[in-house]
Amino acid sequence: MPQVFSYKFTGELWQGETELNTGLFIDGKFIDGCHGTTIDVLNPTTGKLITKVAEGTAQDVDVAVKAAQKAFDTTWGLNASGAARAALLRKLADLMDFHKEELAAIEALDNGKWTVGIAALKNTIALIYKQYYSGWADKITGQTLETNESKLTYTRHEPIGVVGQIIPWNFPLLLMTWKIAPALATGNCIILKPSEFTPLTALRMAALIKEAGFPDGVVNVIPGYGEVAGAAIAAHLDIEKVAFTGSTLVGRKIMQAASQSNIKGVALELGGKSPNIIFDDADLDQAVAAAALGIFWNNGQVCAAGSRIFVQAGVYDEFLKRFTARAKSMVIGDPFAKGVDEGPLVSKPHFDRVMGYIKSGIEQGATVHYSGEEHSGDGYFIKPTIFTDTTPDMRIVQEEIFGPVVVVIKFTDEDDVIRQANNTIYGLAALVFSQNTNRALDTAHRLKAGTVWVNCAGQLHANVPFGGFKQSGFGRDLGEYALHNYTNIKAVQVGLQRRK
Ligand code: NAD
Q1: Residue with the nearest Cα to atom 26 of ligand 1?
Q2: SS3 string of 310-337?
Q3: Coiled coil located at which positions (predicted)?
Q4: 294 and 240 assigned to the same domain
Q5: In ligand 1, which atom is closest to the CA atom of 193?
Q6: Residue with CA nearest ligand 1 atom 19
Q7: Strands 426-427 and 469-470, how do they pair?
Q8: Which residues does residue 474 pair with via DSSP β-bridges, in sequence order?
Q9: Which H/E stretch holds residue 249?
Q10: Among 158, 172, 183, 151, CA closest to 68
Q11: Which of 237, 367, 371, 382 has the fewest CB atoms within 10 Å around its CB?
């Protein structure tokens, strides 16, 4: 039988408790996995075991798909009105709102995020449901089309059916929300796999989904390893679509599995190596603050992190001085302690990966301008790290590090910086700082990126689409665009007899 995990939070920033079920959530119930195996969930702040959760395997995915298909055919899909779906989404948003500190605390425990910041984020997450996708649920419409024949022709945007959703560990709750809200608004049933590193908020959410009153089988949550449960979702013959957020490496595998199974539809939100271009005429206070947010927020474990900062020669020295002071002032530590800016990285393997990149930067001849070190403590802490004197071919300039590590590069020529900025396999996001509107917008239009932030950083909004160019993927999360991931378009043509 599945276990219940109870925990009392006693940190400075939040005291309270949580209770969550550690089973797989299938057909509205928490159950053990078919194989009875479990996954250890570790606390990145201490390296110690938090709890164990049930491990889902291919067999469990299959059981969940059957439950989801049954729900789609009986209680959801075309059987639930848009208004009914909207009401359930609103109810879920209310529950998330009510439990936001608890959800934030679970996420901080599991992922190491800073609790105050994440608590504020919870408001935004609930709004994504409440004000945005619940609003769409009863407004999914097709078109009436003129064909110049005696015919009635129209399109319907129908739910796809059972969809798979696979998410990473860097924003477990936020990305679960981005994925399930548009899929539910459009009437799909879901098999969601959280990352094996951070399954806890998804399991707490599963209980809230049940409490909100979603019919059994509409949302199924299966913690599991990527190569096992994730691969089973990508290859399953009765899953018609898979929406994936994660690395480009795994995105490629998802596409392969999708093409070799049932040619399922795929939406991919993948990695990034976002350029941040700061011109001589930028408001430097604004640019420094945004650059720090752009790379150090969530320890740089952000797909859109501004990890390559290009600074024009006239302000390079001053920028570097102020930006370095900012990095030095950041307080790293227990995410539940007052005054802490950033907690640990998510896991030991990821800590080793980021430290490996720092080593490679040094070996390839870049200068460590600041830090390049881990931070003391039992957990996986790394200090903000700034590299200078890089060359375009270095791994730290080309590859996604996904940590608090940034390269600062001097430039003089506008065309040249755009060429350099576009010179990676990625195209997720970019940042531009200039007080000259023509220059800022011209640059924004020439950058190959799905999002460009001009004189701001990291802004996300429920109705603004987010996704990539090039090997950062395709399809969009958020906004009306995300609804397109989850509907099939059917054209209906009705022959009419003209009455004399
Ligand atoms: P990852 O690709 O290793 O894993 C992501 C998810 O895929 C996890 O749930 C994992 O278990 C699963 N998975 C792994 N192998 C699989 C397989 N063979 N088949 C199916 N599923 C499999 O990524 P990660 O380390 O968890 O997250 C970091 C990556 O996510 C970074 O590259 C980051 O840029 C990206 N990301 C992108 C966005 C975006 O919106 N573009 C947002 C957040 C994170």
Answers
A1: 168
A2: EEEHHHHHHHHHHHHHHHHHCCECCCCC
A3: none
A4: no
A5: 9
A6: 231
A7: antiparallel
A8: 268
A9: helix 248-260
A10: 183
A11: 237
Catalytic residue among 269, 318, 342, 399: 269
CATH of the domain at 97: 3.40.605.10
Instruction: Decide if the complex's ipTM is over 0.95.
Output: yes
Catalytic residue at 269? yes
Lowest mean pLDDT among 77-91, 113-127, 352-366: 113-127
Tell me how far the alpha carbon of residue 456 lies from the centroid of ligand 1, in angstroms: 26
Q: Residue 355 and residue 385: Cα distance in Å, rounded?
A: 10
Ligand 1 atom nearest residue 248's Cα: 32
- Domain contains 206: yes
Cβ(55) to ligand 1 under 6 A? no
When pLDDT is averaged across residues 462-482 and rounded to a whole number, the result is 97
pTM of the model: 0.97
By residue range, what is the domain housing residue 340? 275-461
Q: Is residue 361 domain-shared with residue 223, that is, in the same domain?
A: no
Number of domains comprising the chain: 2
Which residue has a Cα nearest atom 43 of ligand 1?
303
Tens digit of pLDDT for each residue in 212-246? Answer: 999 999 999 999 999 999 999 999 999 999 999 99
Instruction: Identify the pLDDT of residue 500.
Output: 67
Query: How does pLDDT run across 9-25, given as a tens digit for each residue?
Result: 999 988 999 999 999 99
